[in-house]
Specification:
Elements lengths: L9 H8 L4 E6 L4 E9 L5 E9 L5 E9 L4 E5 L8 H17 L15
Length: about 120
């Protein structure tokens, strides 16, 4: 059961976009899970099927399904196909708007009057 589209921040929305794609999840304890992302939640809890588990010591196991708690996830590797996701266009627009509004943030945007010596 996945959360509503549009809920949560950009990382959560991107995770929702990744549903039905193969992902790799590294846990804080060093285990690595690779499988088909079936569902995700706003808490970044994820369900995978057809999973290959690589333990910290290198042992490999095949599992039918797993449910991983979001607070124990270190990072998730998403498929390259998501680079063209509409969500990234939205983020690029937001970034451009912020840069235009704020500037670069490294000064130079102060008063333009001439200094007299």
């Amino acid at each position: 059961m996945s959360a509503k589209k549009g809920a949560g921040g950009v990382p959560v929305q991107l995770l929702l976009e990744a549903e039905q794609h193969k992902v790799t999840v590294e846990m804080k304890n060093g285990e690595i899970y690779r499988g088909l992302l079936i569902s995700s939640e706003e808490t970044m809890n994820v369900s995978l099927i057809d999973v290959i588990l690589t333990a910290r010591d290198g042992r490999v196991s095949k599992l039918h399904a797993v449910y991983l708690r979001g607070s124990n996830i270190r990072f998730i590797v998403l498929p390259d196909v998501l680079r063209d996701a509409p969500l990234f266009n939205k983020v690029r627009k937001m970034k451009k708007t912020m840069e235009e509004k704020v500037g670069t943030g490294f000064g130079g945007g102060g008063s333009k009057r001439k200094r007299t010596v």
